[in-house]
Design goal:
Order of helices and strands of chain A: EEEHEHEHEEEHE
Strand order of the largest sheet of chain A: 5-4-3-7-8
Strand content of chain A: 15-25%
CATH superfamily of chain A: Glutaredoxin
Number of strands of chain A: 9
Strand content of chain B: 15-25%
Helix content of chain B: 25-40%
Distance between the termini of chain B: 16 Å
CATH architecture of chain B: 3-Layer(aba) Sandwich
Radius of gyration of chain A: 15 Å
Number of helices of chain B: 3
Largest sheet of chain B: 4 strands, mixed
CATH topology of chain A: Glutaredoxin
Number of domains of chain B: 1
Oligomer: heterodimer
Largest sheet of chain A: 5 strands, mixed
Order of helices and strands of chain B: EHEHEEEEH
Structural class of chain A: alpha/beta
């Protein structure tokens, strides 16, 4: 169960990224919306959605939207999720957003994230606008009926409430230590 | 044909995968019962050489054979679809092709 509900304030974090720089949520306080996405390398649900997340960042970047991806999986048990592999994945897939490593898992625990991928979308005042899955079809992007994240972003850009504020995250469980 | 379906409860696609497997078996007129096995521990994953959920074995053969260095673990499994996308589920075509191959390799059919 996520620790944040719509209207709650974002929880600050600062984590190392695959670009070897540290990234803080506060670095993006000027954005209209920031989507914090807990994800990972190995999970097929994360893989199924990652191109759509890349495209979402590309489509909304010039409108003040920032995606931040965080992997918190235990790399001892899941070596595909270790930091070097995260760097490789980001390069292979052309990630156009910071991909951060939550090695201590403290950020994921603070957010109450459970799945990969799992989206927490914050508005310009830093409060949670939308929490849940990216859209309603992990298997076929062409068959999506509800674009939850994009709809929430459109609402944020129009200074409106998202049509759906919460959905059930669908994906692999976060691999805790 | 011996059909085994191995799954890990935390991977949400297993029910849909089992439904898809049964549909393809029906479509092909194969009257085989599916042995459904829940994998519940890392030890069991190692013992069953379980590379992720869902895994479908036809006469002991994986419908999408994993690489030899595959990691056995309680995890969800990535399937490569015909168009290059990744899915947590095998496509019906992947299941169909595996069934065709299993039928051809069955002894005594010519």
């Amino acid at each position: 169960m996520a620790n944040l509900k719509p209207g709650d304030e974002a929880i600050a974090f600062e984590l190392p990224g695959v670009d070897d720089h540290h990234h803080a949520l506060a670095d993006h306080a000027d954005k209209v919306a920031v989507a914090v996405v807990f994800t990972c390398n190995h999970c097929p649900y994360a893989q199924a959605w990652e191109d759509r997340i890349v495209q979402t960042q590309a489509d909304y970047a010039d409108r003040g939207v920032k995606v931040i991806a965080i992997s918190a999986n235990d790399p001892e048990r899941y070596p595909d999720d270790n930091f070097p592999r995260m760097k490789e994945r980001a390069q292979e897939k052309g990630f156009n957003f910071p991909y951060l490593f939550d090695e201590s898992q403290e950020v994921a625990r603070a957010y109450g994230a459970e799945r990969t991928p799992e989206v927490f979308l914050f508005g310009k005042d830093g409060t949670l606008l939308y929490h849940g899955t990216v859209d309603d079809n992990y298997e076929d992007p062409g068959a999506v009926q509800n674009h939850y994240l994009r709809d929430a972003l459109d609402a944020a850009l129009a200074d409106e409430e998202p049509p759906v504020a919460q959905t059930r995250p669908i994906g692999c469980t976060i691999k805790w230590r | 044909m011996r059909v085994r379906f191995l799954f890990y409860e935390d991977c949400p696609s297993h029910e849909l995968a089992l439904e898809r497997l049964r549909e393809v078996l029906d479509e092909k007129g194969i009257d085989a019962s599916v042995e459904v096995v829940g994998v519940e521990s890392e030890e069991q994953a190692q013992e069953l050489r379980f590379v992720g959920s869902p895994t479908i074995l036809l006469d002991g053969q994986d419908i999408a054979p994993p690489p030899p260095d595959a990691h056995y673990a309680l995890t969800c499994r990535a399937y490569h679809l015909e168009d290059g996308r990744i899915s947590p589920l095998p496509s019906p075509d992947t299941i169909r092709r595996a069934i065709d191959a299993a039928e051809k390799s069955e002894p005594g059919d010519g």
